[in-house]
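Appendix B, example 12.
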Amino acid sequence: MFKKGLLILVPLLFVFTQVHAQQFAEGVDYIEIKEPVKTSHPDKVVVTEIFWYGCPHCYRFEPYIENWKANLPEGVVFEQLPSVLNASWMQHARAYFALQAMGETEKVHKHLFAAIHLKRQRLNSLDTIASFVAALGVDEKEFRNHYHSFPIDTQVRKMRQKEKKYGHGGVPAVIVNGKYRTSGSLAGSNAGIIKVIDHLVQKELGNK
């Protein structure tokens, strides 16, 4: 009787082990980017979130990624980049890059998300965004100067090129070390995205 039970248990343990070993699969939970994209920190593992301020999915994902980045493993760098996939997203992308150039991103980032999704403010033009950031203590004149500057034009152009290489069709999307892409539609949920990120980060740290 014991031998018979053991014979049944062994295959079950094998199946259990196989399921957990294949918990995250390429083509299911994430996509491998055919031609890896150069990262901002070649000596680190870079996790890049691509977002749009007007995206409700990005807004709901924000608390998850905020909690995750609060405890970055050693050797890992996190960055956020505004998507320019859609022409109507350009105002927010320029605003993000302008604030970044001024060192004011942290002051505005969460407030801008909340204003759009909680307060339903229509912040979709230079004038409305400039007034909004000014109310938060950002120098409006300097912000406007950056918004349409050549350096911001260059960042937008580079972002457009990067997104073509990443191959994603929507946001939020997360790129791990320029090699892998995941999203809610792949990972299944916001919590799922975080689990996939952790899996890929450990995979990349092991290759360093």
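Residues 85 and 170 are 8 Å apart (CA to CA). Residues 2-21 form the longest helix (20 residues).
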